[in-house]
């Protein structure tokens, strides 16, 4: 155990691509937690999942204990808490931040402050963090550390005079970062090894070999192997089997003392048995002052996931169950669709979360899935005075029973080079946005907009990226529910409604959206042997229509004894193709159409 | 109409040589600039047929078909030797159809008499067009007058005769095609094979077409040409009994019906395919395509079979479906169920019936309607799922 005065707990906040993971790699390397051989060929050693590494994002929180001999001759224990950077996981960021006392704010010395930087740094400030400003990529020709330093002071309002200039890529300035952590960040504020055990459950996940691993931060007392602990939120008791730290390899230690981070295993069966933010105490001698705890994260985006092949339903059930073991913020319940058969209605923290889960299901569990239109959670105020939450447009009650519909709104912050401002303003206006603020951060515009979430869930981020050629950054937070003039739009293919394509839209946007969807479906659905009308309708009224013309001719002229094998193989391919489609009435719709049809592409 | 639907057992012999390669042809055909050693090939055919006989056991053949390539490049003695071998190995029914494919050139026609004496009772002539510019475009070595003389001679020589035409040629109008077709029927064939020109990969036309050197009629015109074909032939007493084959009732090609009714057949010669039952399952045989390599293989191993498979029930059912629905008589649903181990989907049948793409025939058969025939590949894929 390290004396509290020689512990520093910190996290790194940064915009995606500003070098957070590279800096973490450097810190690990320089403190010798992993030698060069172990680091060789590995980048972003903290990102365990393939998806994390491929997408350059961090999904689960990670900690690493670093031993650092400072200029004052003392050896310090530095605990780096790596947090997710994406807006979808803002909630995880906030609880990770609350477990430490300081942050490194990493800003790209040429690009400067981005929307995500702002959102994350404000969270750190809200958690009373001291902040060390780190300007990365100063070795690049475009770097302007002086300008960015001013920008940070101006926009964020924190002192950047002591900013550390580094290049995580070349290793320049990394020792200065370590020294700044020791000198500029405070040790843990409290902590008494004699007091009853009080530890925060920071995160937990399932490991195939060790079972549930719980990441903890000890506040008071000492956590030891053999102790019987109690989760104060659930009152469940467990004997501690193993205590350890991440270096980032798992290293068993005898005890975890006040101010320290570590992990325990304790025969806990499921991640669902652990509540993030819960207080862990000793069963014999419980603490009298448990931590306030966290509210569980609420899913904000829902969509249906169905197996392409109905026979895979049980596999899908097993797979979502397994993912849920590791991701309590992902929710699911069984859903039956007239069109798609059996599947699950799943809830996600945001669109990235949705994509990640879908990708993991397809990749790790080898499932072919159809995802239906993402939907936000609407609140329906019914004539009888009751209120109902609507997760699925297909469940919408008869309009005569509804007195009003409320939808979730967000406050979005967008930072963009001036050149793209016009296009972005138009995008926000088109999506029913209400401008709250427009100011300048150096040469860049900072736009603050209130937007209905349902206008953002489909492809807002993609559009923003394409309008700004990738330069605009975007962050948002849910604010409130507001009443909206929303109607349910149905899509009819060959005169039959396809429930998986129905959606709630604002009345003023319905016609445009309906037309776009009909046009998209016309491209996505292959020609059939008969013509297929595609219609968008509100109630019984058709607001848009397209027709897919019939195949005129598709027949092999010659087919004799020597042609049968080749023809059968073609037929087998066609049959395989049909398996990747869903049949609605007489029409085969490719699975990709369900998501593709929603992309507006303005 | 009562149908004798027993497809029977047929024997196919592939003669792979041609005087010239036609630019549209993707069949297994080869041009040789030295005379072909026909005796060597006869010996190889004999050995391969003996091998196949061992595997099929004694069977009664309803048909023998000499296809190619250009079988009319064979000497009559060669044809005679091959037919004698077949007759020695299997029982050939007294009314068996014995067809030879022939080019309508004068050189080939000179041998007609000899073929008849060897036992051939039906010829199929590769006429392809009834005007000289189109014959030249199609790379044919004969002219129209020559073809007409060959047709007349074939009619005199053989009890039965058929010829092929290719339509949907560049710039061909439905009107012109209708007139050409009437003229063809007037040449008093009792059987016509009428193929839409398709551009196949690996042919000379493929590259030319890719490079935009010529264009074939679009889908709309193709459909119209197909419609005209059906109308003109039906009005003149030669209705389609298969997608591309038309006959006076009773004059259908029995050999090809073996294929379409999913009967059994052996195939001998380079690149020939066979399908027959062995130990309770239908097997496929395919031989080496290159003529000399095939002959060497037969000399070494007793047969030239290089590929094949044992079909599972789904594969058999798929083949039965895709072949059978080509016929105007359609398919027997019970036979499908027996082959597949499951019936065709009622839902798919219902959908296609309601769109008028298929029609019931009696209680247990379905057939593709004319509007179904023209999109048959899509229709079969829909049913077979």
From TrEMBL, chain A:
It holds the Pfam family GTP_EFTU. Keywords: Cell membrane, Elongation factor, GTP-binding, Hydrolase, Membrane, Nucleotide-binding, Protein biosynthesis. It is an enzyme of class 3 (hydrolase). InterPro entries: EF-4, EFG_III/V, EFG_V-like, EFTu-like_2, G_TR_CS, LepA_C_sf, LepA_CTD, LepA_IV. Belongs to the TRAFAC class translation factor GTPase superfamily. Classic translation factor GTPase family. LepA subfamily. It comes from the Bacteria. Its EC number is 3.6.5.n1. This is Elongation factor 4. One of its GO terms (molecular function) is hydrolase activity. HAMAP family: LepA (MF_00071). It catalyses: GTP + H2O = GDP + phosphate + H(+). The gene is lepA. PANTHER family: TRANSLATION FACTOR GUF1 HOMOLOG, CHLOROPLASTIC, TRANSLATION FACTOR GUF1-RELATED. Required for accurate and efficient protein synthesis under certain stress conditions. May act as a fidelity factor of the translation reaction, by catalyzing a one-codon backward translocation of tRNAs on improperly translocated ribosomes. Back-translocation proceeds from a post-translocation (POST) complex to a pre-translocation (PRE) complex, thus giving elongation factor G a second chance to translocate the tRNAs correctly. Binds to ribosomes in a GTP-dependent manner. Transmembrane segments: none annotated. GTP binds at residues 17-22, 136-139. It is found in: Cell membrane. Residues 5-189 form the Tr-type G domain. It is a peripheral membrane protein. Coiled coil: none annotated.
From TrEMBL, chain B:
Its main location: cytoplasm. Belongs to the anaerobic coproporphyrinogen-III oxidase family. HemW subfamily. Residues 3-239 form the Radical SAM core domain. The keyword Protein transport does not apply. InterPro entries: Coproporphyrinogen-III_oxidase, Elp3/MiaA/NifB-like_rSAM, HemN_C, HemW-like, rSAM, rSAM_sf. Probably acts as a heme chaperone, transferring heme to an unknown acceptor. Binds one molecule of heme per monomer, possibly covalently. Binds 1 [4Fe-4S] cluster. The cluster is coordinated with 3 cysteines and an exchangeable S-adenosyl-L-methionine. This is Heme chaperone HemW. It comes from Mesorhizobium liriopis. It is found in: Cytoplasm. The keyword Chaperone applies. It holds the Pfam family Radical_SAM. Keywords: 4Fe-4S, Chaperone, Cytoplasm, Heme, Iron, Iron-sulfur, Metal-binding, S-adenosyl-L-methionine.
């Amino acid at each position: 155990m390290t004396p509290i005065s020689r512990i520093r707990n910190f996290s790194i906040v940064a915009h995606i691509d500003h070098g957070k993971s590279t800096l973490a790699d450097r810190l690990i390397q320089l403190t010798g937690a992993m030698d060069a051989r172990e680091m060789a060929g590995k980048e972003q050693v903290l990102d365990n999942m393939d998806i994390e590494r491929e997408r350059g994002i961090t999904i689960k929180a990670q900690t690493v204990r670093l031993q650092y001999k400072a200029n004052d001759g003392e050896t310090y224990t530095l605990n780096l808490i790596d947090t997710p950077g994406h807006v979808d996981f803002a909630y995880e960021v906030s609880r990770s931040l609350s477990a430490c006392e300081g942050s490194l704010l990493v800003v790209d010395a040429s690009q400067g402050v981005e929307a995500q930087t702002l959102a994350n740094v404000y969270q750190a400030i809200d958690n009373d963090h001291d902040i060390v400003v780190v300007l990365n990529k100063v070795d690049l020709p475009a770097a302007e550390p002086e300008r960015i330093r001013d920008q940070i002071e101006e926009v964020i309002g924190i002192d950047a005079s002591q900013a550390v200039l580094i290049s995580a890529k070349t290793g320049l300035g990394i020792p200065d970062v370590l020294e700044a952590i020791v000198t500029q960040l405070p040790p843990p504020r409290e902590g008494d090894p004699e007091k009853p055990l009080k530890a925060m459950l920071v995160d937990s996940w399932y490991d195939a070999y060790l079972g549930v691993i719980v990441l903890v931060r000890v506040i008071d007392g000492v956590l030891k192997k053999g102790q019987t602990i109690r989760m104060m939120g659930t009152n469940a008791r467990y004997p501690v089997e193993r205590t350890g730290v991440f270096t980032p390899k798992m290293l068993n230690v005898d005890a975890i003392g006040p101010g320290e981070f570590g992990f325990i295993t304790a025969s806990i069966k499921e991640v669902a048995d652990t509540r993030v933010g819960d207080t862990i105490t000793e069963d014999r001698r419980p603490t009298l002052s448990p931590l306030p705890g966290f509210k569980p994260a609420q899913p904000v985006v829902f969509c249906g996931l169905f197996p392409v092949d109905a026979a895979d339903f049980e596999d899908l059930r097993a797979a979502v169950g397994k993912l849920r073991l590791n991701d309590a913020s992902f929710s699911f319940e069984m859903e039956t669709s007239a069109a798609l058969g059996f599947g699950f209605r799943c809830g996600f923290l945001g669109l990235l979360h949705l994509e990640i889960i879908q990708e993991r299901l397809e990749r790790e569990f080898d499932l072919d899935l159809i995802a239906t239109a993402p939907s936000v959670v609407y609140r329906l105020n019914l004539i009888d005075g009751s209120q109902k939450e609507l997760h699925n447009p297909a469940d919408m009650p008869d309009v005569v029973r509804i007195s009003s519909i409320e939808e979730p709104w967000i406050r979005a912050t967008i930072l963009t080079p001036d050149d793209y401002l016009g296009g972005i303003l138009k995008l926000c206006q088109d999506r029913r946005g209400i401008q709250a603020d427009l100011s300048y951060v150096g040469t860049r515009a900072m736009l603050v907009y209130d937007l209905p979430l349902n206008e953002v869930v489909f492809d807002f981020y993609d559009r923003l990226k394409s309008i700004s050629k990738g330069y605009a950054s975007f962050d948002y937070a849910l604010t409130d529910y507001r009443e909206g003039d929303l109607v349910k739009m149905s899509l009819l293919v060959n005169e039959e409604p396809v429930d998986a394509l129905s959606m709630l839209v604002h009345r003023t946007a319905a016609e445009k959206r309906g037309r776009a969807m009909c046009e998209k479906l016309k491209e996505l659905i292959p020609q059939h042997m008969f013509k297929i009308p595609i219609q968008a309708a509100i109630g019984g009224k058709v607001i848009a229509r397209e027709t897919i013309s019939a195949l005129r001719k598709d027949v092999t002229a010659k087919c004799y004894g020597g042609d049968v094998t080749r023809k059968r193989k073609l037929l087998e391919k066609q049959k395989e193709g049909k398996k990747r489609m869903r049949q609605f009435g007489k029409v085969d719709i490719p699975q990709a159409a369900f998501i593709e049809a929603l992309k507006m592409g303005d | 109409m009562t149908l004798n639907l027993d497809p029977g057992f047929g024997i196919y012999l592939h003669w792979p040589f041609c005087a010239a390669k036609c630019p549209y042809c993707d069949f297994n055909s080869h041009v040789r600039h030295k005379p072909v050693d026909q005796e060597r090939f006869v010996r190889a055919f004999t050995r391969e047929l003996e091998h196949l006989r061992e595997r099929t056991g004694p069977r009664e053949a309803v048909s023998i078909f000499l296809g190619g390539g250009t079988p009319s490049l064979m000497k009559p003695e060669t044809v005679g030797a091959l037919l004698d071998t077949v007759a020695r190995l299997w029982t050939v029914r007294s009314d068996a159809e014995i067809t030879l494919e022939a080019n309508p050139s004068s050189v080939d026609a000179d041998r007609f008499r000899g073929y008849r004496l060897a036992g051939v009772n039906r010829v199929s002539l590769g006429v392809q067009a009834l005007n000289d510019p189109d014959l030249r475009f199609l790379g044919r070595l004969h002219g129209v007058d020559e073809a007409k003389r060959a047709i007349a001679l074939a009619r005199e020589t053989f009890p039965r005769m058929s010829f092929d035409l290719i339509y949907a040629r560049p710039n061909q109008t439905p009107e012109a095609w209708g007139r050409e077709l009437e003229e063809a029927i007037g040449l008093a064939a009792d059987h016509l094979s009428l193929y839409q020109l398709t551009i196949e990969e690996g042919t000379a036309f493929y590259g030319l077409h890719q490079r935009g050197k010529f264009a074939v009629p679009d889908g709309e015109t193709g459909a119209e040409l197909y419609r005209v074909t059906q109308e003109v032939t039906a009005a003149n007493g030669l209705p389609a009994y298969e997608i591309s084959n038309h006959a006076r009732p009773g004059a259908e090609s029995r050999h090809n019906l073996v294929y379409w009714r999913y009967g059994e057949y052996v195939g001998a010669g380079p690149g020939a395919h066979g399908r027959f039952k062995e130990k309770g399952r239908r097997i496929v045989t395919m031989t080496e395509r290159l003529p000399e390599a095939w002959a060497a293989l037969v000399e070494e191993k007793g047969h030239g079979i290089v590929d094949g498979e044992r079909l599972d029930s789904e594969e058999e059912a798929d083949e039965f479906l895709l072949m059978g629905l080509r016929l105007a008589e359609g398919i027997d649903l019970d036979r499908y169920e027996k082959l597949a181990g499951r019936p065709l989907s009622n839902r798919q049948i219902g959908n296609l019936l309601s769109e008028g793409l298929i029609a019931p025939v009696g209680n247990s058969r379905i057939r593709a309607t004319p509007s179904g025939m023209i999109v048959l590949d899509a229709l079969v894929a829909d049913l077979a799922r």
